[in-house]
Structure formats: C-alpha cells, structure tokens
C-alpha cells in the first residue's frame, strides 16, 4: 500500500511547493498555491453538495435519523 502512506504525500506536497517557489518567485507561487487550495476546496464542496446530499447517505436519511433520535 504505497499510496496510503502519508509520508509519501508529504514529500509530494513539499516538492510541489519547492517547484513553485523556485521557478515562479514568491508572489506568483503564493497565487499558484492559493489557486490550488481554492480548487481543492471548491471541488470538495461541489462533490458534497451534488453527490452526497442526493444519494441514500445524504438528504432524507440524515433528516429521518435526526427526527427519530431521543432527546
């Protein structure tokens, strides 16, 4: 399970950061880093809104569980 090892992903992220800052300069690298972060956040939110809430795991199932919980 090579790809589930967290240390491998940390090395990849550090390599991307080094690449950005060395080749683009700090201002353009920050813009690139901000763009990457915003893309990941938007994709995560869009996926949650369109897939999870419209499947059996989301939407009505969560509402039914909340209504049937003892207080």
Task: Describe how the helices and strands are arranged.
Blueprint (H helix, E strand, L loop, with lengths): L5 H19 L1 H25 L9 H9 L3
Overview in brief:
The protein has one domain. Helices cover 75% and strands 0% of the residues.
Specify the helix fraction band: over 70%
Q: Biggest sheet, open or closed, and with what strands and sense? A: none
Mean pLDDT across the residues is 79
Fraction in beta strands = under 5%
Q: Taking Cα atoms only, what radius of gyration do you get, to the nearest Å?
A: 19 Å
Please mark out the parts with pLDDT under 50 across 5 or more consecutive residues, or reply none.
Answer: none
- Main structural class: mainly alpha
Supply the number of helical segments. Answer: 3
Oligomer: single chain
Separation of termini? 43 Å
Number of strands: 0
Overall outline:
elongated
Total domains, how many? 1
Helix and strand pattern = HHH
What does this structure look like?
The protein is mostly helical and 71 residues long. It has one domain (6-68). The chain has three helices and no strands. It has helices at 6-24, 26-50, 60-68. The chain is elongated, with a radius of gyration of 19 Å. The mean pLDDT is 79.
Which key phrases capture this entry?
elongated, 3 helices, 71 residues, mainly alpha
